[in-house]
């Protein structure tokens, strides 16, 4: 039921 | 040196209880303004952002910035030994190898002192810009928790659909489906029971039910939860502390 996305694809590493 | 005294241990007990199942290791950053944590779960789907401002403490001082690398399960074991109504003081030296926790019973002369070894934790730190949201929902945290628990019995995904004045939580499972709709509602006598929906664009997002059921472990912290959503973006779930917050950023699921 849908593909889980990853936070790293939205927020850059500092 | 850090010295932070909580009037009641219950606040930190609830915070650690809310975090410990999502993240194992956390750096607690102590500054003169308070204590903050950013931690991300192993699957990189859920990010926790905690801020306990100095105002949440009865007394607080931190002369120099200190990082406390803590193993959450160990911290939780010690925290559970204190009573919720105890005063709790956190103490650490400037270059500490341990965090001291002192629980004091208010009625009797009972002092329990623990020392927790610190760890060097190398963690990713994500840069979260000021996010724009298309919809903001304020609702009773207990009601949100029940919906997340109930919907998880049907499916591992929970769909959140927001239109003008209602929020629909929808779950499509193998053996059946279910949904709960809540509408804007103002309770003037018990404002914590109110539901407020602020909408700029309709929302239709799907999230992993497992993560939502970790987030709702924060329910004892606040009577209301704020949910901020934007199309194709991580959602923000926020529980207010007396002075500060516990926030969760959750990455959505997308159609295959």
Structure description:
The complex is a heterodimer of chains A (14) and B (256). With 14 residues, chain A is mainly β. Helices cover 0% and strands 29% of the residues of chain A. Chain A is rod-shaped, with a radius of gyration of 10 Å. The model of chain A has no long low-confidence stretch (mean pLDDT 87). Chain B is of the alpha+beta class. Helices cover 15% and strands 46% of the residues of chain B. A 9-stranded antiparallel sheet of chain B has the order 6-2-3-4-19-18-17-11-15. Chain B has a 5-stranded antiparallel sheet with strand order 5-1-7-8-9, with helices on one face. In chain B, α1 packs antiparallel against α2 and α3 runs antiparallel to α4. The longest helix of chain B has 12 residues. Chain B is globular and about 55 Å long. The mean pLDDT of chain B is 96. Classes of the chains: A mainly beta (14), B alpha+beta (256). At the A-B interface, β1 and β2 of A face β10 and β20 of B. β2 of chain A pairs antiparallel with β10 of chain B.
Keywords:
heterodimer, A: 14 residues, mainly beta, 2 strands, 0% helix, rod-shaped, B: 256 residues, alpha+beta, 20 strands, 15% helix, globular
Q: What's the topology here?
A:
The complex is a heterodimer of chains A (14) and B (256).
Chain A: E1 3-4, E2 12-13
Chain B: E1 2-6, H1 10-19, E2 25-31, E3 34-40, E4 46-53, E5 59-62, E6 66-71, H2 72-81, E7 87-92, E8 98-104, E9 111-117, E10 126-127, E11 135-140, H3 141-152, E12 157-163, E13 166-172, E14 177-183, E15 196-199, E16 203-208, H4 209-215, E17 224-229, E18 235-241, E19 244-250, E20 253-254
Antiparallel strand pairs in B: 1-5, 1-7, 2-3, 2-6, 3-4, 4-19, 7-8, 8-9, 11-15, 11-17, 12-13, 12-16, 13-14, 17-18, 18-19
